Amino acid sequence: MMKGQARWFTSLLILMLMFIMAGCSYTEQSASGEMPEMIRVKFLMPDQVKVNEEVALQIKLTQGENPVDDADQVQFQIWNEQNEPEAPAAEQGMMNADELEARGAVKASAIGDGVYEVKYTFQEPGKYVVQAHVTSGAMHTMPRAKVTVE
Fold first, then answer.
1. pTM to 2 decimals?
2. pLDDT tens digits, one per residue of 125-148
3. Whether 114 contacts 68, CB under 8 Å
4. 3-state SS, one letter per residue, for 86-139
5. Are the beta carbons of 119 and 56 closer than 8 angstroms?
6. In degrees, to the nearest 5, what angle opens at C-alpha 89 toward C-alphas 100 and 136?
7. In whole angstroms, what is the distance from residue 69 CA to residue 116 CA?
8. Which tens digit of pLDDT belongs to each residue from 22-70?
9. Pick from 96, 100, 70: which is nearest to 85 by CA?
10. C-beta of residue 87 within 8 angstroms of C-beta of residue 142
């Protein structure tokens, strides 16, 4: 009987210590009053491109005044605006990088100074949406830009 009580007491003690440590961490963060600045995304690409001509689709990531060269994931999803992909179901939540790639997203390469790039060739004329999926730390942003292909 003593062994069961000791296990229960040890489990309770560990749980209490976890709460205390989490509380201290939260207090230290809130006391500093500093929230990390949001990551800003600026598209660096033409508004118009030609069919069957390779184009560099680029974004520049900054946080405050500093370029972000170490984003966890940067992908581009591209579609004709008449064929927007279906959004995931609410219960599915946010898609991870593999799920995005399975839906045609292309992984971008870091080329320096916060710039990420994908080389892409549009096969047909039309108006296209380019959506960047950027994850850096706990932040995720998904801005869009439009491109006319002639």
1. 0.72
2. 999 999 999 999 889 999 999 999
3. yes
4. CCCCHHHCCCCHHHHHHCCCEECEEEECCEEEEEEECCCCEEEEEEEEEEECCE
5. yes
6. 40
7. 8
8. 444 444 444 556 777 899 999 999 999 999 999 999 999 999 999 999 9
9. 100
10. no
